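Hello again, I could really use a second opinion on something today. My current little project is about how a certain protein chain folds up. You're getting the sequence in one-letter code plus the fold written as C-alpha cells. Here's the protein in full, and shout if anything looks odd to you:
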Amino acid sequence: MSDLDLDTTARTILTENDQGGYTIPTKGLYPYQWNWDSVFVALGFATFDPDRAWREIEMLFEGQWRDGMVPHILFRKDDPSYFPGPSVWGTDGGPIPSSGHSQPPVAASVVRDLVEADPSKTTLQRAAALLPKLMAWHRWYLAYRDPDNLGVLAVIHPWESGRDNLPDWDAALAAVDVKDIGPYERKDTSHVDPSMRPHKEDYDRYLSIVAACRKVGWDPAEVARSCPFFVADPGVTFIFLKANRDLLNLAERLGQESEAAEIRGWIARMEEGAKRLWNEDLKAHVALDLRTGKQTNGISSASFLASYAGLTDDLTLSALQAHFDRIAAKVRYMTPSYDPDHACYEPLRYWRGPVWAMINYMIARGFAEAGDFARSERVRRDTAALIETGGFAEYFSPVDGTGAGGGSFSWTAAIWLAWASPSRANKAA
C-alpha cells in the first residue's frame, strides 16, 4: 500500500470510529471515549477537519468531574462488550458515567498545537473556553496526585498511567491484596490473543484497587491517602510538565497573567521534583513507589520523555542518547516500551515491550526540541515503517514489526496523519 493509500486509510479509520463528536479507539475492544486517545486523535483530525479536532477535545471535557478531574473513560453508553463497565466503577463525580481516575494529561499540549496551526479569533475563543477547564484539571493533579508537594505525579492504578501492565508496576501491584472483587469475566481476551494482554493475576489486582477506591466513594484526598497503589510515574510526570509549559503559552497568549504566574510555579515545582525519579545507577528516570520509597530498576519508553518535558541538561540528554543507541542496536524498530536488556521484557505483551506510535511521537518531538534531529527522525521513520508493515495496529513488535492488539486503531491512524506519514514529513520540510 502506498503512503497516499495509507493516508486515505488513516482518515477512513478516524471517520469510521467517530461516534458523533467523539472517537472510540477501535471497535469491539474499546467501545467508549478514552481520555488520552481522544486527545491524540484530535491531532489526526486536525490534518483534514480542524473543527472536528476541537470538538473531540471539547467533548472529552464534557465529562470533567466537579473536582476538576478528567476521567480516563467516559461511558457515554453501556456496552456489554467491555469490562469493567460503569457499574463496576460506581462513580458519580461528573455529568457522564465514567471511570474513577484520570489518564496522562496531554490535552493542553494538543490545544496549543491547534492554536499554533490556526491562531484565528475563533480558535483563540475555543482555547479560551478550555483554559479554565485545563487549569482545573492540572490543579486536581497537583492536589491529589502530588499531595506531599514532591514535584512528581503518582498514579493510583496502572490504568491511570496509560501503560497498564508495565513491569514498573509489578512490585507495587504484588503488594495489593486481592479482595472485594467477586467473580468476573474479562472481555479483552475475547478480542485479542491472551498472550498479548495482562495476566489474570494482574487483572485481579486491578479490580481490587478499583474496589478499594469505590469503598471510599472515590474521594480524591482519601484515595491519595489510602489507595493500596500509589506510584510516581515518569510518564505522567513528564507529560504533565510538558503540558504545563504549553498551558503557560496559552495563558500568556490569552492575556491571563494570574493563571500564567500560577503555572510558572507548577513548572518550577515539577522541574525540581523530577530529580526524585533519577536513578543514578541506571542513569535514567524511573518510577518511584511512594508507599515504600523504592525506585524501579528498568528503563521504559517513558524514561525517554524527559526531553519532551524540557529536561535537556547535558547529563540527562547524553544518558538518554546512550540508552537509545544501546537499545537501537538490539531491536529493529524503536522505541520498545521496555528495555530489551531487562528480564521482564516481552516484545508482544502490551506495555512490556511493544512499540506504541503515540509514545514514539512524543519521544521524537522531545529529541527534536533538544536539537537531536537524527534520533528524532530515526523514531519517525521507524514508526512509519511499522505502520507500513503492520497496519494501523494498537502496538507493534520492536523485533519484526508485527502488529498486535486492536486493529484499525484511532490513535495510530492519527499519529500517521499528524507526524509519521512521509507525505506529512515532506510538507513539514
